[in-house]
Amino acid sequence: MIRLKLLAATALIAGTAQMAAAQEKVSWWYEQATPDQQKLIQQHIVEPFAKANPDYNLVIDYRGNELDKQLRVAMLSGNGPDVVYTAGPSYVAPMAQSGQLMPLDDYAAKYKWQDRILPVFLKMGEYNGKIYALPKTYETLGLFYNKTLFAQKNWQPPKTLDELETLADAMLKDGITPFAAGNANWRGANEWFVTLALNSVAGPENLNKALRGEMPWTSEPFVKAIDRLNSWWQKGYFGKNYFSLTSSEDTADAMATGRAGMMPTGTWQFQNVATYGKKAGSDAGFVGFPSASGDPVFPLGIGSTFSIAAKAKNPDGAAAAINFVFSPEVYGTMNSAWQGEWNIPLKDISNVKMASEVTPLFTETMKSLSAAVNDGKYGYSTWTFLPPATDSYLINGIEEVWLNKITTADFLAKIDESFQKEMKAGKTPAVPAR
Amino acid sequence: MHRLYVLPTLIINAVIIAIPALLTVALAFFEWDGISTPVFVGLDNFRALWDDSVFWTALTNNIIWTLIFLTVPIAMGLLAATMMLVARRGSKFFQVIYFLPVIIATAITGRVWQAMIYSPVTGVTGLLQRMGIDISNPLTETSSALYGIAVVDLWHWWGFLCVIFFAALRQVPAEQIEASRIEGATFFQTIRYVLLPGIMPTITLMMIMTVIWSFLVFDFVYILTQGGPAYSSEVLSTFAYRSAFYDLAVGKAAAISVVISLFGLAATIFYIRAQATEFEK
C-alpha cells in the first residue's frame, strides 16, 4: 500500500515537473525584503513579466542579508542564479575580473539599452570596456530639514558651508541637535558624512582625479574635508547619542519632533521622513548639501546592480527579466509603493505614472537628480566608487578620527595605501570621465 | 572489525572539520578575495597582522575578555552554587531563575539589553539621563564598550556555570561535609577545604573551556557593537569576519583564525596534560 502511494506521489511530482519544464526557469536571488515588499515584487514584476513573457518562469529567491556571501560561494562553484544581483559596482569588478559574469553588450544592443538608460550608469557597469552590470537604483545624499521648526525660528536652509555652521551653532545654543544622525543599526552610515564632506569641501573634480588614481588621497583638499567634518563632530553637531540611534527610524523621529533640526542623509529616507513627519505634525524640506561655492553637489550612489552569470542556465531569460525591470511601468509602480529603492536609471521618466500619495518632495528631488546626472554635475559616493577594503576602512577609520585615536593625516594615509593596493589589483570600479 | 564503528564519525569529522580546518591553515599563506585564484604570499599575511594596530587591540581585548570570564562568572557561579547547597529550600527555583538567561537566544538577549538597558532613547540609560544623571550608553564609549558587552555576556553565562557547579557539588560525599561540620568548620572553611577540592576537576575543565570560548567570542560583540566604536571592542573573531566579508581579504582572515586556534590549542594541551597527571595520581 505504501509502495503504491509512493509511486503515485512520484508520478505526480514528475508530472508537475514536466509541466513546469515547458516554461524555462529564470532564477534571481534577491536580498532582504519584508513580506509586504515581497508582495510588491510579485505583483509589479513577477506577474506582469510572466504575462509579457510566457516562455519564461521568473523565480525570485529571497536570500536576506547573507545574499552577498551566498552569491560568492555559489558563483565559485558555478551553481549561482541566472540573474546576479549585487550590492554595488565595487562587488561587480572582482566577479567580472575572474570571469564569473557574462558581458552584456549583445543584450544591450538587442534591447537598445543605450537609448533607454542614462549613459553614466552604463559606463559605471563597465569593466575592461565591456558592460557587465546595470544599476538597479540610484540615490543621492542631501539635507532634510524640519520646515516647521525653521519657520518658527525664522531660519533659512543653508546654501554654503559657512551658513551651515552658523545655523548649526545657533541650534546648539537653543538646545537642538543640529544633525539627526546615528549608526546603531548600520555602521555604514558613517560614510554618508564622509561622502558629504569630500564632495562639498574637496569637490567632485578632485574626487574624480583621486578615484582614477591621478591624485593621492593625502592631498590637501581631502585633508581639509576630513578636518572640517571632524570639527563638526567635535562641536557636537552629531549629538550625544550617535552610536546609539538607528540611522533610519530614530533619526527621522528626532528631526520630525524638532529635537534635531536637520538630517544629512540619503534619498532612501523619504519614506521614514513622511511617516514620522505625519506622526509629529511637522513638515520636512530637502535641499542639496551645502558646499563651499553655494551650488549643491549631489553625490551619486548606486544601491544594487544586475548582471548575468557566465554559467547561467538561461541567459536569454535573465536578460529579458532585467530588461523588463527597466521600464517606465516598473519604475512607476515600484517607486510609488517603495520609494527610493527602485529609482531605476531610465533616461526618460516623463511617461512615468506615480501614485497620488507619493510626496511631491520625492518626485521633485528625483527629477532634479536625474537632470544633474544628465548634465554631468554630480558627485561621488564612497560606497559606489571605492573598492571594498578601502571603503570598509573608511567606515571604521573615521570613528577613530572622531574619537581622537588617530589624526586626519593617519586616516588619509591608510585610505591611500589601501586604495593604491586595490587599484593595482584591478578592484576599483569604473569611474566615468567628467 | 569493531574498529569500523569509528568510521562514520571519522568521515564526518574529516569532511566538515579536518579538511576545512586544513584549508584555512593553508589559506593563511595566500592572498585571496574569495572570488579569483589565490596567490601564494608566504608569511605576508602574518607580517601585515604584526604591523596592524587593530590586530593588537583585538588580541588585547580577547585577553581582557578571558581574564574577566576566568574570574567573575566562575566566582559568581561558585558562590551561588554553594549557597544553594547549604540552603536547600528554594534551590530548584533559583536554579531555574539563574539558568533562564542561558536558554534565551543570543540575538534576543543582545537586542533586549541594547533597547531596554543601554539605549538612551528607550532604555534605563535614557531614563537616568532624563532624571538629570549624566550617564551615557557604555557601548558608545571607547573606554567602556568592551565591558558593556562583557556585562551582557556575563548575565547570560554565569547561570550555566552555577548549575554545572551545583551539580558537581552535589556529588561531593555528604559524609565529608557532615564531618567538617562536626569538626566545627565555618561556612568558608567548608568551602575552602571540602567543597572546592571536591569539585576541582570540574572547575579546571570549565576554566580551560572558558579560555577556548573567550578566544572564539563573536556573537555578543557583533550584535552589540560590531567591534566599534573606533575598533575599541574589536575581538579576533569579529576582526576575521570583517576581513573576510567586508575587506574581501580571505587570506588575512585565515591568518587571524590561525592565531585564534593557537590559543585554543595551548589551552587544550594544558587540559590534556592536567588530565594525564590526574590519571597518574
Automatic annotation (TrEMBL), chain A:
Principal cellular location given in the protein's record: periplasm
Keyword Signal: yes
Domain of life per record: Bacteria
This protein's record includes keyword Signal: yes
UniProt GO cellular component terms: periplasmic space
Residue stretches in coiled coil: none
Annotated compartments: Periplasm
Keyword set, alphabetical order: Periplasm, Signal
Pfam families (alphabetical): SBP_bac_1
Endpoints of the signal sequence: 1-22
Similarity comment text for this entry: Belongs to the bacterial solute-binding protein 1 family.
Protein name per UniProt: Carbohydrate ABC transporter substrate-binding protein, CUT1 family
Source organism of this protein record: Chelativorans sp. (strain BNC1)
Lineage of source species: Bacteria, Pseudomonadati, Pseudomonadota, Alphaproteobacteria, Hyphomicrobiales
Automatic annotation (TrEMBL), chain B:
Pfam (any one): BPD_transp_1
Membrane topology type: Multi-pass membrane protein
Subcellular location field: Cell membrane
Biological process, per Gene Ontology: transmembrane transport
Signal peptide annotation: none
Keywords: Cell membrane, Membrane, Transmembrane, Transmembrane helix, Transport
Transmembrane segments: 7-30, 63-86, 93-113, 154-172, 193-224, 244-272
Main location: membrane
Entry GO terms, CC: plasma membrane
Domain ABC transmembrane type-1: 59-271
Family classification: Belongs to the binding-protein-dependent transport system permease family.
Alphabetized PANTHER family for the sequence: ABC TRANSPORTER PERMEASE PROTEIN, INNER MEMBRANE ABC TRANSPORTER PERMEASE PROTEIN YCJO
Protein name: Carbohydrate ABC transporter membrane protein 1, CUT1 family
